[in-house]
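Section 5.1 Outputs to date
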Amino acid sequence: MSARSKAVTCRARSTVAVAVRPRVRGVGVNGVLLLRASDLAPLVEHPTGPADGEDRPTGIAFSPDGRSVAVPLESGRVAAFAPSGGSPAPGPWTQHPGFARGVAFSPDGSMLATGGDGVVRLWSVPDFRAVGELPVGQAVRSVAFSPDGAVLAVAGLHQQLQLWDVPGRQPLLQLDQTDTAVNDVRFDHDGRLLSGYADGWVSTWDVDPGRAAERLCGVLGPEPVADQWRALGPDFGDPPGCPG
């Protein structure tokens, strides 16, 4: 790996997957290197592009059961591999306008989300059939499913962090960052959202309405929360109730 640079890694059970690409474009093959997690010994390598080193990988994701690896590529293609096999299966099977960047499996493994320029595409697993699109309107850098699979977080180059309702294919929330791009998003096991920014900062967002209301009530008290909520306008409905 001395002539190659690591793009990104992910882990499933006893295996670590590394998306690798040549340090110098056109010298070496892009691909996915599978390593044994216990000692990082190489197991198998899957090329994702031609021998000229073009079509670099931009991300990587394991399916929850560890049976599939998905890799978005610079060409807009997305390759899927069976880690225990010796060939892509199936794929590359989809095309995004511009780069493909950002990939995530749903927690139950039934869906894959892939990002491109202005759109996130949703695919059923294991047949990889197109089942929907989310018109996010920005170049995607990262996507992540909530623990229940109902919400998809999208990090974008145009300084936007978005939340989408997956079953309804509708936007839920957009947070505009004024001075930096959103590089990455992840949900923790409790459903809190972590977002990483190009300026090095990391933010934590509690997107559970009940927990968020409880925290606001604890800081401001019931009456200020209600007053500020109503000031947002009638479209937001009644203010959240404070416990106790």
